[in-house]
Amino acid sequence: MAGPNGMPPPEPGRGLFQSLQRLLATLLEIVQVRLDLIANEFEQEKLRIFDALVWAGVALLFIALGLLLGVAMLVALTPETWRPLVLALLTLGCLGTGAYMFNEARRRLANPAGALPDSRAELAQDRAGLDPTPPA
After folding, report:
1. Cα–Cα distance for residue pair 81/49, rounded to 1 Å
2. 109 near 49, Cβ under 8 Å?
3. How many C-beta atoms surround the C-beta of residue 22 within 10 A?
4. Are 87 and 73 in contact (CB under 8 A)?
5. Are the C-beta atoms of residues 38 and 119 closer than 8 Å to each other?
6. Whole-model pTM over 0.70
7. Distance separating alpha carbons of residues 59 and 101, to the nearest angstrom
8. Rounded to the nearest 5 degrees, what angle is found at the Cα of 93, between the Cα atoms of 92 and 96?
9. 120: CB partners within 8 A, 6+ apart
């Protein structure tokens, strides 16, 4: 027996089962997308932290080199007129470079949005979409 639109009527319980299957498939897809997003953000955080650590390591190297050159400048204070000036400029250059790189590493580690901002925004959007009360 055909239904009003020419199609056979659905079997009892079959429409509900298909609806539940689609709902479950949709929920699993949402969970998979969210997990992929979180994994991607963790990878970005890992690369950002590694980058900042490299900058901090190079900054420490230049600071150590600057201190070494500063001590060498004290030792090299001899009557020769240009030797202290050259060592002083090298020392200031290394210390300045180290300070710049240290500040750059701190800037790269600073994240004003907090951890996983995209995932939190997507989850807030999901939660707002599931909220039964319409926005006023």
Report:
1. 46
2. yes
3. 10
4. yes
5. yes
6. no
7. 5
8. 80
9. 114
Token look-up 């897809």 returns 29
Report the half-sphere exposure of 108 (CA within 13 A, side-chain side): 19
The two structure tokens encoding residue 64: 């150590």
Q: 94 and 62 in contact (C-beta within 8 Å)?
A: yes
Interacting residues of 118 by C-beta distance below 8 A, sequence separation 6+: 37, 41
Residues 98-125 have a mean pLDDT of 79
Q: What is the torsion angle, in degrees rounded to the nearest 10, for the CA atoms of residue 38, residue 44, residue 46 and residue 49?
A: -130
CA distance 48 to 132: 39
**pLDDT (mean) for 36-65:** 90
Residue with tokens 């390591």: 57
CA 2 and chain centroid, separation: 58
Helices (H), 1-136: 14-75, 83-109, 117-130
Phi, psi angles (nearest 5°) of residue 110: -70, 125
Q: What is the 8-class DSSP label of residue 133?
A: S
The per-residue pLDDT for range 63-72, each reduced to its tens digit, is 999 988 887 8
Q: What's the token pair of residue 95?
A: 């210390």
